[in-house]
Amino acid sequence: MDYMIDDVKHSVVSVDHNTLMIDNTTYDISIISINPDGIEFLLDKQYFQVIYAEESRGQMVVHVNGSPVTLKLHTGLDDIVYMNSGGASAAMTNSALQSQIPGKVVSIAVAVNDEVSEGDTICVLESMKMQVSVKAHTSGSVKSIRVKVGSSVAKGDMIAEIE
Predict the structure, then answer these.
(1) 38: left (phi over 0), alpha (psi -120 to 50) or beta
(2) φ, ψ at 21 (rounded to 5°)
(3) Is 128 helix (H, G, I), strand (E, B) or coil?
(4) pLDDT tens digit string along 130-160?
């Protein structure tokens, strides 16, 4: 996954559950905790706390050990995920919002009977140590939520029903 921080491109690749490669340098990573508000981890035995502050399509503002950082996500991948989660498909009339990637449900941003607009975040999935927002494919009312925090979803699994 590629990110832009202060207009400098950085590459982050998960080597395995305990190793990340950041800009071609290998680091040991140990996750301390993950919750809908952020993540705590050790990177080469150095402590980091990342609090999610704000998210919009293509970028995320986080606070790393108290300092704000704006991450510009790899726009190519972000656009693919956005389109495949139904966010850009006006022709899609099916009420089922399906997962386009496998992952673990990190947070759910809506409740049954909530009114949502096309492009609103419905839930956040974690896949390969990256968090991806699943966006509403249409405006309407949330009729059902088919996942819960902590559950795993496969590609094609129903996330929610929006009518």
Answers:
(1) left
(2) -115, 115
(3) coil
(4) 889 999 988 999 999 999 999 988 888 889 9
Q: How many residues does the chain have?
A: 163
Q: Which amino acid is at 96?
A: A
7 token code pair: 């207009």
pLDDT, tens digit (0-9, with 9 covering 90-100), for 12-34: 888 888 888 888 999 998 888 88
For residue 35, what are the contacts with CB-CB under 8 A and spacing of at least 6? none
Report all structural domains of the chain as residue ranges with CATH numbers, in order of start.
2-73 (no CATH), 75-162 (2.40.50.100)
Site of tokens 């096309």: 118
Report phi then psi at 83, rounded to 5.
Answer: -65, -40
Is this model's pTM higher than 0.85 or not? no
